[in-house]
Amino acid sequence: xxxxxxxxxxxxxxALAACGGSADSGGYTSGPSTKPTTPSPxxxxxxxxxxxxxxxxxxxxxxxxxxxPVSTTVTWEWNSCSGDGYGGYSTCVSHAITFDDGSGIxxxxxxxxxxxRTFATAGTYKYHCLIHGQSxxxxxxxx
Length: 143
Hints:
Elements: H1 4-18, E1 49-50, E2 53-56, E3 61-62, E4 65-68, E5 72-78, E6 97-99, E7 114-119, E8 123-129, E9 133-142
Parallel strand pairs: 1-4, 2-5, 4-9
Antiparallel strand pairs: 2-3, 5-7, 6-8, 8-9
């Protein structure tokens, strides 16, 4: 005796398997993806970022820790102002960068603009905001 239900289920399972699905999926299947996948890089905490610019925000340096080759000029750019300036509303925060290496290099106290330093010697250069202290600090690693 011919069992049409068994034949229909078997035919469905074969067709589903040919499309890359599974008969055990509860009726929902997804075929193979045609979009190539590219793994996204995973940041490694504690490893300095390789860049030559740092954003000075209202309460931090971004990135705080960077790594550059010898003879690289690093530029800090102030991005401390927000608000529209109308009606006396403005939230500009002043910062001054000072280095902990005893070099005496200090940026101007400012809330906009840039400051640059060229690093001619390999080493670790810690710095902080002269106004906000060590709670706003960073490191330039020169290799």
